[in-house]
Amino acid sequence: MQDDKAPxxxxxxxxxxxxxxxxxxxxxxxxxxxxxxxRASDKMAVLADTSVMxxxxxxxxxEAVAGIVRYHVEQIAIERxxxxxxxxxxxxxxxINYQNKGANRxxxxxxxxxxxxxxxxxxxxxxxxTAGGNMIxxxxxxxxxxxxxxxxxxxxxxxxxxxxxECERFVTLAITLAxxxxxSSGGCVRLNTVTADGIHRTFVQANDLPPMYGELAVxxxxxxxxxxxxxxx
Length: 233
Fold this sequence. Notes:
Blueprint: E1 13-18, E2 21-27, E3 30-32, E4 35-38, E5 44-48, E6 51-57, H1 59-80, H2 86-99, H3 103-106, E7 111-119, E8 123-129, E9 135-138, E10 140-143, H4 151-157, H5 164-181, E11 189-195, E12 198-204, E13 224-225, E14 231-232
Helix pairs in contact: 1-2
């Protein structure tokens, strides 16, 4: 008998504020059941000049939400002659989720998002936006299948007024830990650091990530690294 259930997907996304900005990060593995469909994807979308969305859940739903949010952000920017603040951007995304709770045969959108950024009014901000339409402001958060394994690590390791370097290291380490435990998370790590100067993107290749809990260190002796950053055996 054919199984009509949708294949399970997974990811790990993380966001954290620091003294002067926000660091958002994600792994790069896209999984469809047991099949890795993309090992170097970009799970973060730029919504405004200093606002970024981390996407988890359904890739189709989150990409659609991101596109709609960008449309509204552009309209607001034209009317005000200025980019909207981070909270406004997060509210737009959250409202789309809430208004579509009846989508997908009553299951709602599969869009679990983190929106973070910096603006001149409120400074550094991170918002967790759930599929049901809840929006929570927090200093750090994580989502996706890999988040289950790193909540304790992040709660213990977070400290206020971190420097940019400390925060980027903290987010990278959290995602690396999730990747070592969650089979649906993996590949490389992408970071978006948002400051008053804009969005700064960083790509951390697999062989630059520290091994975790008995993992073999990734090195060129095990294969070679492709242009996308993945390890080819």
